[in-house]
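Entry for adenosine-5'-diphosphate complex. Fields follow.
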Amino acid sequence: MDRKELQKALTESKRVVLKIGSGLIATANEANEPNGLDRSMIEKLRDEVLFLRERGIEVILVSSGAVAMGRSVLRKTLAGYHPQSNPGLSRKQALAAVGQARLISLYGEIFAEKGLAVSQILITARDFRDRNAYLNIGHTIQELLRLGVVPIINENDTVSTEELRFGDNDLLSAACAALLRSDLLVLLTSVNGFLINEQRVPVLTSITADVLEAAGGPSGPGSGGMRTKIRAGQLGLRTGFRVAILPGRDRAPVQSLFTGEDIGTIIGSTEPSHMNARKMWLLFARTRGAVIIDDGAVNALRHRGSSLLGAGIKELRGAFAQSDVVEIVDAAGQSIGRGIVRAGSREIQASIDAKKPLSYEVIHRNDLIIETEIG
Ligand SMILES: Nc1ncnc2c1ncn2[C@@H]1O[C@H](COP(=O)(O)OP(=O)(O)O)[C@@H](O)[C@H]1O
Ligand SMILES: N[C@@H](CCC(=O)OP(=O)(O)O)C(=O)O
């Protein structure tokens, strides 16, 4: 696909999520000790936000840097504090708790210099799994945008346990881009874009095994590196937003992209189709239990676009209630998708035991997503 065509399409975006990672925003002193956040980087970000807003584009920021800022604050204020080279989760959580307040106040100060107000939104992966919490996040952000306030999102590190963590803000910002129906996710990076054999790849329209192979982890203070940026691109291709991985050290990378300069790596297609909102949420939803289905039902779901009828269910795993999201598993134990059940496990189990399958659609087509859509 022609990069120029795709780049032109990007400029039609109505809502953009813009993410800056620890690798770019954290600074170190000459002795390589943590030394706060890079003020000039935040000033640049502010000017990029202003540029997009002047074009009528809504902007949501995702900023890392709480842990790095926490380290720097403690180094400067606590005698005898020594930053650990590889801190565990609870130490990182404590550092984030110290640093997040400073981070947001620094943004507030710098953005106010040009008449912009900021807000802090702290979220966890769990918030996206709960439909009410996710809808409320959306409503709050919508209202902030209506007010003209810039939302600044970070992970709520205090409450994120190991299994509930995004862990890095590339994936958090991708989830935000999907669920907030943004057209474009900009990931600022410390390198020139996605590189293969040191050469920048200007455009990706699909994520192949070679691409995944070439995308490695971070080399600086960040936690995701390029691998998570490519995963963000994969989610974008599936759900309908485009991704631009841009060199964050350039003078004005977003403005360059929007004015047609050939920089960074763009991931997307020229005509992305937004996944419908309910299916989108199913991608992130927490599942409770599973329905194990027979080969005929697998075939009907995969190839005929059917709903799941009671007759196709062989057994159940775990207890769940009507309206819960369950895993859909084939006879070999492989998960083939997930969906919202119209009956609880007790009712379905009773029908299996009585050999009288439920006569209705236990999971309606509109309420399920199969693995080709999940990826
Ligand atoms: N194929 C690749 N292309 C570009 N960078 C790569 C690749 N594989 C690994 N990397 C590493 O990914 C990192 C880019 O992420 P960076 O912007 O530093 O991180 P973060 O967003 O986590 O702060 C760089 O450290 C770079 O060395
Ligand atoms: N929530 C953490 C950010 C985690 C992180 O480092 O993410 P990233 O910079 O995307 O690799 C913080 O603010 O320090």
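NOTE: The first strand starts at residue 15 and ends at 20.
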